[in-house]
Amino acid sequence: MIFHYKNTPIHYETFGSGPAIILLHGFLESSTMWKPLIPQLSKNNFVITIDFPGHGKSGVLAEIHTMELMAEVVNEILQHLQISTATFIGHSMGGYVTLAFAEMFLEKIEKIILLNSTTENDDAEKKAIRERSVKILDSVPEAFISMAISNLFTEESKQQNTSEIEKLKAEANTFPVAGIQANIKGMKDRQDRKQVLKNFKKGKFLIAGLHDTIVPYAASKEITENTNTTLITFNSGHMAVIENLSELKVVLNKILN
């Protein structure tokens, strides 16, 4: 389905019925990442998946896709669907948007589940890396996408999930370069939202990978301790939906039921 926000097409899909769950994908991903979880989650819930602007089948909204802008898009779709509250599951960048949404529309969130994500903003080194990434995309987008997606997995996991990794790369190569760059710029400029998570008084969970090189496990552990958030640990990298699918299904079933 297509929802138009500021004359820009935003692709979303819905499944099942019951309490609402919204699934927000990460950088260089799309709503297709959630397909393995949809059958289970939609048995007793109304599940909504969205392609963020510049990713999947959604158009490019602006030169910079801030986390706040993407949270506004999510809110508009919830209003369109007449959903007053939902549980949010956000992977990586989707977690950043979840926290921005929590800051802007707190009363609309039932539970927060951050999946391989963080409350922290970028430090100076990471900001510089993102700036270089924007420039690299101007000249060799396929090489950047291949490297960025490979880096989401541990070395062992790369060997075990070759076909899945190639699918991710193939799909990401269909995204407009301007959209990828807009999302990089938005992540670079995002705020630290540790206090937002700390102030959220309902159920909140952070699912972390012991070997995650994108979101270091030590940082995840510290965040959960400082925000009174439940930490769930997998022996994996940054892609729990692929690397720990069966474990993730069990964990989500316990959290949501």
From TrEMBL:
GO MF: acyltransferase activity; hydrolase activity
Domain of life: Bacteria
Ranges that cross the membrane: none
InterPro entries: AB_hydrolase_1, AB_hydrolase_fold, AB_hydrolase_sf
Gene3D superfamilies: alpha/beta hydrolase (3.40.50.1820)
Annotated keywords: Acyltransferase, Hydrolase, Transferase
Record flagged with keyword Transferase: yes
Keyword Lipoprotein attached: no
Residue ranges the record marks as coiled coil: none
Domain AB hydrolase-1: 19-244
PANTHER family (alphabetical): MONOACYLGLYCEROL LIPASE
The protein's name in its UniProt record: Putative hydrolase or acyltransferase of alpha/beta superfamily
Lineage: Bacteria, Pseudomonadati, Bacteroidota, Flavobacteriia, Flavobacteriales
